[in-house]
C-alpha cells in the first residue's frame, strides 16, 4: 500500500496543505466502540475507588478478610448502580445525536486529528464543505480545513512519534491510536481501512501493534 501521498478514493483525498481528509459517520446503535471506552473508564475508576476504600479500611484496623468482604459488597453495589446508569446515559446520548457520531479526520506524516462535529452537522454537509475548501485552496494551503475546524465541537490530535500502541480492528473499521495518557479512535470505510492502517503503522515507529479480526 502506498503511503507517499498518492492515495485517493471516493472517501479520502489529499488536500493542498499536504493532509489527507475524510469524513466518517459512526452508527452509535450498531457500534460498541464508544460504549466499550465508557466501560473501560468506569472500570479504571472503580478499581481506584476500591483500592482507596481498602487502604482506609486496613488503616482503621479491619482485618484482611473483613476488608475483602466489604470491598466485594461495595463493588457489587457500585456495579449495580453504574452499569445500568451508563447504558441509559449512552442511549440518551445516542438519541440526542440522532444515533450518529460524525467526525472529520485529518492525517499527515506527523500525526492525525480527530474532529467531532455538532449533531446538526451531517456527513453530506461535511463532505461538501471539504470539496469546496479543496477547490478554493489553490496556492493558499492554509485555507484548507479552516472552516471545518471552526465548526468543530472537539478536536483531538495525536502525534505519531508519541504513539505507544496501535489496536487495529478491521471488523469495527477502527484503529485505536494510544499515547501514554490518551486514546484516539480512528475510523475509515472498509475499502480505505487497509490504507489508513498501513499509513499509521508506517509512521508510528515506536508503537506496539496489536491486530485483531474481531
Walk me through the structure.
By secondary structure, the chain is α+β, with helices and mostly antiparallel strands. Helices cover 44% and strands 23% of the residues. Strands 1-2-3-4-5 form a five-stranded antiparallel beta sheet, with helices on one face. α1 (33-59) runs antiparallel to α2. The mean pLDDT is 80.
Could you tell me the strand content as a percent range? 15-25%
Number of helices: 5
Q: Label the overall shape.
A: elongated
Low-confidence stretches are none
Number of strands: 9
Termini separation comes to: 22 Å
Which features characterize this protein?
single chain, alpha+beta, 5 helices, elongated
Helices and strands, with pairings:
Elements (H helix, E strand, L loop, with lengths): L12 E2 L5 E8 L5 H27 L4 H33 L3 E8 L3 E6 L6 H15 L8 H5 L3 E6 L5 E5 L4 E5 L4 E5 L2 H14 L4 E4 L3
Parallel strand pairs: 6-9
Antiparallel strand pairs: 1-2, 2-3, 3-4, 4-5, 6-7, 7-8
Helix pairs in contact: 1-2
Quick synopsis:
The protein is of the alpha+beta class and 214 residues long. It has helices spanning 33-59, 64-96, 123-137, 146-150, 190-203; strands at residues 13-14, 20-27, 100-107, 111-116, 154-159, 165-169, 174-178, 183-187, 208-211.
